[in-house]
## 1
Amino acid sequence: MNDLSFFLPCAAGVEEFLAQEVHALTGRVGQDLLTLRGGVRVRADWRDALKLNLHSRLAQRVLVELAHAPYRNENDLYAIASGVAWEIWFTPKQTFKIETTAQHSPLQSLNFATLRIKDAIADRFRAKANGVRPSIETQWPDTRVFAHLTTDSCTLYIDTSGEPLFKRGWRQDKGDAPLKETLAAAMLAASGWWNPETGAVTDEPLYDPCCGSGTIAIEAAQIARGIAAGSLRRFGFEKLLPFQAHVWDAIKKEAQSAVKPGSVAIFGSDVSHRMVDFAERNAERAGVAEAIEFRGGDALQRMPPAEGGVIMLNPPYGERIEVGGVARAGARESAQTEEGDGSDFFPQLATHWKKNYAGWTAWVLTPDLKLPKQMRLKESRRVPMWNGPIECRLFRFDMVAGSARK
Ligand SMILES: C[S@@+](CC[C@H](N)C(=O)[O-])C[C@H]1O[C@@H](n2cnc3c(N)ncnc32)[C@H](O)[C@@H]1O
């Protein structure tokens, strides 16, 4: 288990930051650490896999690559899967699930491809274990196998994470459009507030004025305190055969002893008091309640919580989350106009920031590529980021007094 090849998928746009994080956690460089499209490949050992699962804030999962071979049809997939020593990883008494993804695969049916891989795994176990074979469980499998097909190659992985890593275990209360924890961490990395290579954070106060369930603020506070991202959850590797409880306990103990008092000020507010309540409960579970100040309030009215710092948010957008507060009330009053939806929110937010937040830097994640125009602000950076299937930009605005577009 000392020379394994891992693939860590991540959201598009996040690969470089993930590579920095993986380098910091494993020390691997050069050919042992490759930044690919949609993830990072690293050659490392089994112990590293446990550390990556526990600490990574940017990876979606940690997968072990078990086969990579050319294929032309389903029979080739059967042969590739038959050649993998699955019995090293799990027993025929455990359940498993296969998830297949494909990019330009010539095969007609991914379901049939998945079925052939499943048959190969089951037949191999049956032959080795006196007719006993593991059964399929799609909801709560003990083991997950991932197959990725390109035009002509098939890669098979066994998963070590279980539930995807954005599920940190502390967000039990959430609104309609919560941000994935991994994406919140990516925003913090892209802004430079957090350096995934060194683990350091800047000393600038951080403020999310549309905090919802508190994801950005809580993620930031955990980073500042050195609390491991996965310290509250279980992982798939705990059910795999190479798992050794004493190794895992030592890794967790080491992580626990690295927790420090946070020294940077972090703030969150939301127009919905219900959301503020959720955020406070989530922060409590995440062990950072005393590191964040949450308040109720309209982003168009809240005054700066500190003298200067970084504003970071994914604002209300589209149908799932409506703008609340004065922008919405204003739009209702002038109801004869077609803007009954709070669409004044962004120009008003820009005016409020220009007037009251001079010296602050604002980072706004949005799928609306015309947001700067709507805010009449010129962005100083735009970072492409994907929120699941939605293409977004993280815009940076430097709030200098009088920074309005002419
Ligand atoms: C897309 S959600 C943010 C989700 C958050 N990042 C999370 O992870 O839960 C937008 C949030 O903006 C809030 N909101 C809407 N209008 C607002 C306003 N005028 N002032 C402050 N917050 C507002 C909503 O209540 C909602 O929680």
## 2
Amino acid sequence: MWRPTSSKNMEFVRDLGADEVLAYDLGGLNTTTEFDFMLDTLGGSSYGDALKFMKKNSVVATIISGRDAVRPDYIDAVEEERQLTVKFVFTRPDGRNMNHIRELVEAQKIKPVVAEVLPLTIDGARKAHRLSQTGRVRGKIVLSNNN
Ligand SMILES: NC(=O)c1ccc[n+]([C@@H]2O[C@H](COP(=O)([O-])OP(=O)(O)OC[C@H]3O[C@@H](n4cnc5c(N)ncnc54)[C@H](OP(=O)(O)O)[C@@H]3O)[C@@H](O)[C@H]2O)c1
């Protein structure tokens, strides 16, 4: 597994299980590895930059919609040239999916990372929204009525 991050999070990403960690703020992304699969959580030009590391006929799952990031024009051509299969994945927070995620957590196949727990109040929601807008949150922000 290969993962770009900022230099401050390199150790954290290595601990999550990445074999190779590249910091986007230390001279750009470069590797000789070619990939069969990419999970895109950024979109935009970061996604475009990562496409050059994909093998021909490889697969991309993206969680980014047109509302999350502007898609540069050249991306269609690169996806076509590499003959990528690109799928948009959308989370449906229903009981069935939540139970499946719980099972994966219990089986330690997913390691949840909680950045901050805030009270389930208007002020808590406001603070959570502001935090989320920084684009720097490491993990999930939880609103809880247990604090
Ligand atoms: N399809 C769905 O079901 C679904 C569900 C949830 C979220 N989303 C979308 O997914 C996107 C990501 O959401 P998120 O909750 O992860 O929050 P986020 O605030 O977009 O992501 C924060 C993380 O991204 C990292 N990051 C920022 N720029 C980066 C870059 N150039 N290269 C590598 N890492 C970078 C930050 O690390 P550094 O501080 O190290 O840069 C930080 O840890 C959002 O656009 C959201 O709308 C989609």
